[in-house]
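Structure tokens please, single chain.
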Amino acid sequence: MTILGNVKAKTTITLIDDHRALTDAMASLLNQNDNFEVVGIAHNHEDGITRIQQDKSDVYIIDMNLGSGDSCELVQQVKASGKIAMVLSAYSDIALIKKAIKSGAMAYLSKSSAASHIIAAIESASAGKKYFDDIIQSSINASAGVDIKIDTAQERAMLSQLTPREKEIINLISQEYTSEEIAKELHLSKHTVDGYRKNLISKLGVRGSVGLSNIKS
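Here you go.
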């Protein structure tokens, strides 16, 4: 997406999905939004590669199961081109979700998602933030998928309540500092740092230090 003078250009989108009825419906939905324009559609893996190479869209929405070829390969190609890849899938298996995110997907949505989720995902991903709809987030939570960072309004609100010292500690934890190393860095005792860890786990509602390590203030 670019800015032309005072006019914001539309976010261009390419859809890659083997269900023609779905791509037709999504194209119609997205084109009704003044901020979006669907400029390309592909219905198989091979055409998807061609579109990624030729369309140069801002955002690519990719089906996780195209019947042939690896959809994550398409996600990787989109990421390598500096564009945004999102996944829209009928599958909410945690292994597929993790594979897609590891490949570079900025969002993972269920095909049962409401239109509002698709639009919110495009806007969030365009702002550099990962997005998961309620169905996918439930799958992640059920599998204790703490290694996937979920950006939500609730989490941002909680982070805004942290003290400057707590934010310092969160940032160091996310960099895999031990309590001893944090204590040395901030000139605190290890006992004090451990106390901060315990309070942060309670305040942010995460599952132990592993959960803390995936949060950046």
